[in-house]
């Protein structure tokens, strides 16, 4: 009976040590990830991506005022998209 108690006590200590080291490792990874300094895309880069995505004809043609959101972000009544053979 004494041997079972001893193993249970050691198992609890090992679980605490394992949990402690797991927390330390997770926190270390989080700090390293934060310090890696991932760069954010610049405004110019995002504008260029948007221009490329718009195609050769540029942006949509927005007419009137209403509830429809145009590609420029303004609220319009109609949005005309140029015809393409893509």
TrEMBL record:
This is NVEALA protein. Keywords: Membrane, Transmembrane, Transmembrane helix. The chain crosses the membrane at residues 17-33. InterPro entries: NVEALA. It comes from the Bacteria.
């Amino acid at each position: 009976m004494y041997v079972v108690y001893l193993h249970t006590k050691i198992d609890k200590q090992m679980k605490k040590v394992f949990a402690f080291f797991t927390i330390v490792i997770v926190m270390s990874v989080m700090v390293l990830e934060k310090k890696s300094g991932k760069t954010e895309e610049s405004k110019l880069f995002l504008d260029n991506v948007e221009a490329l995505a718009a195609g050769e004809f540029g942006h949509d043609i927005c007419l009137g005022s209403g509830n429809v959101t145009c590609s420029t972000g303004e609220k319009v009544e109609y949005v005309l998209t140029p015809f393409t053979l893509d």
